[in-house]
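User: For my dataset I need records formatted as: sequence, then structure tokens, nothing else. Please produce one.
Assistant:
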Amino acid sequence: MSDASLHIRSEDYEPSFGDFFALLKPRVMSLVVFTAFVGILAAPTSLHWVEAFAALLFIAIGAGASGSLNMWWDADIDAVMRRTAKRPIPSGRVTGESALSIGIALSLLSVMMLGLTTNWLAAGLLAFTIFFYAVVYSMWLKRSTPQNIVIGGAAGAFPPMIGWVAVTGSISIDAVLMFAIIFLWTPPHFWALALFMRSDYDDANVPMLTVTHGRRSTRNHILVYTIIVAVFAVAAAFTSMGGPFYLAVALIANAVWLIGAVQIWRRDEEMSEADNFRAEKSFFKFSLLYLFLHFGAVLVEAVLPAGAWGGW
């Protein structure tokens, strides 16, 4: 964690709403909202739309709280990485103390209100998710082990499960599979990014796999995890949240996903430098679409009328 004195901040600069909102990592929050929304609609029972909206709102606020706490703790790392140097704290637009206060306040608000509007199991999962991301991942794993993103990926995988539990009050195989898809997707997604942004992690002394084990090992890991997540993603088609449409989407998306992983795996470092990591960048960009396609397909299956696929 960086000291507030490390930040260059104009005394007469007044942070804007946009500066504070950026602390919440809105792009990450949008993915959280989408996957939690799918978890709510895919559940076998339903909430009143007001309760469903409240659940989404408080899950989103909880995600924002995690982001603010992460930015507070990682301000020193963010300051030396090109990808994150313009974030509110390292750029001097917001103080670390403000980010910490916002993170704590939003954490308490989101957990309490989710418990009051839905159920306390969902609230407990949200509290654990915030703790896991802010403390287990940010404060411990990220700076201590190359398995940081493997274990830490659990934090981003909980939202659809929280959405499901907010509706049903219990955890089922469907919720676990939605969790597993995101959990297993996270490492190859970030490792692809690390392959063409390795200097950032070197400069920040973050033990990403590319730094500790090298690019060849990272490519091998990407291929293995891609195969594993493909198995789980296709298997979800044969649960209550799946169906023919989901199966078709999963087969196509995972075929593209696997081809991209094989292309990365077959490359050597000279090829990578020569073409500026085009395959890695392409794989990374598709990985964002990958989640949207799968959870979008679950959403389609959820809104189709019962029995739409006959005896499937």
